[in-house]
Specification:
With about 200 residues, this protein is mostly helical. The chain is built from ten helices and two strands; from the N terminus they run ααααααααββαα. The protein has helices spanning about 1-25, 35-50, 55-70, 70-80, 85-95, 100-115, 120-135, 140-145, 175-185, 200-204; strands at about 150-160, 165-170. The chain has a two-stranded antiparallel ribbon. Helix 1 (about 1-25) crosses helix 3. The longest helix has 25 residues, at about 1-25. The radius of gyration is 20 Å and the shape is globular. It starts with a helix and ends with a helix.
Length: about 200
């Protein structure tokens, strides 16, 4: 019961976020603000929920995709029948579908199947979604596969005051999972009196 209530609450939260973002964007015309309405909405949502600006932007995008592209899936989410983890995967894996008619068909097909996907592993979940997308819009899956060719690791400019530099990249999902698990294992294997935070240990 509480798992269903939790999923339904998450759905209503994302719907409210999407509504607020939409209203803020509409009010942006003619504004002389230093940031646009979308960015301003993210700042307000970030403050209201106590989350980072980037996470607020991510939730705004998820809510927008559910509202505009996945209404049938969104209705099941509102009823608490789909886990938020499955929703995140669906919105991400269908984001490259460009054809509105194909998107409507995929939404309906997902609504019939996604309720049974809550127990799937992340890999099997993504495979199930990709298989469905490939059936109705093969180009969307090929575009997502092509994006894997852009994988890279980059190191940003050095911050001389802090003596640090940013590191970011794109890896195969399987490699990223192994890397993350190994970093966490190494970070937690040090002496309990180590004063560094977990994040600092991962970096080191």
């Amino acid at each position: 019961h509480w798992a269903v209530a939790e999923a339904a609450a998450a759905a209503h939260r994302l719907a409210a976020i999407a509504e607020w973002a939409d209203r803020s964007a509409r009010q942006d015309e003619g504004s002389r603000w230093a940031c646009d309405g979308w960015d301003a909405a993210a700042a307000e949502i970030s403050a209201a929920l106590g989350i980072s600006h980037g996470r607020a932007l991510s939730q705004m995008e998820t809510g927008r995709l559910l509202r505009l592209r996945l209404p049938a899936v969104a209705a099941l989410f509102m009823a608490g029948k789909i886990h938020p983890r499955v929703i995140d995967a669906i919105t991400w894996r269908t984001a490259l579908v460009k054809d509105p008619e194909a998107m409507a068909i995929i939404d309906a097909a997902l609504a019939k199947l996604a309720g049974a996907w809550n127990a799937l592993s992340q890999y099997k979940l993504e495979q199930a979604i990709d298989t469905l997308v490939d059936r109705h819009d093969p180009g969307a899956v090929r575009r997502s596969r092509t994006s894997a060719q852009s994988r890279d690791v980059a190191i940003g400019a050095q911050n001389h005051e802090a003596g640090t530099a940013a590191l970011w990249g794109r890896l195969f999902a399987t490699d990223a999972a192994v890397l993350e698990r190994r970093l966490n294992q190494m970070a937690r294997a040090v002496c309990e009196d180590d004063p560094r935070t977990l994040g600092q240990r991962r970096a080191d």
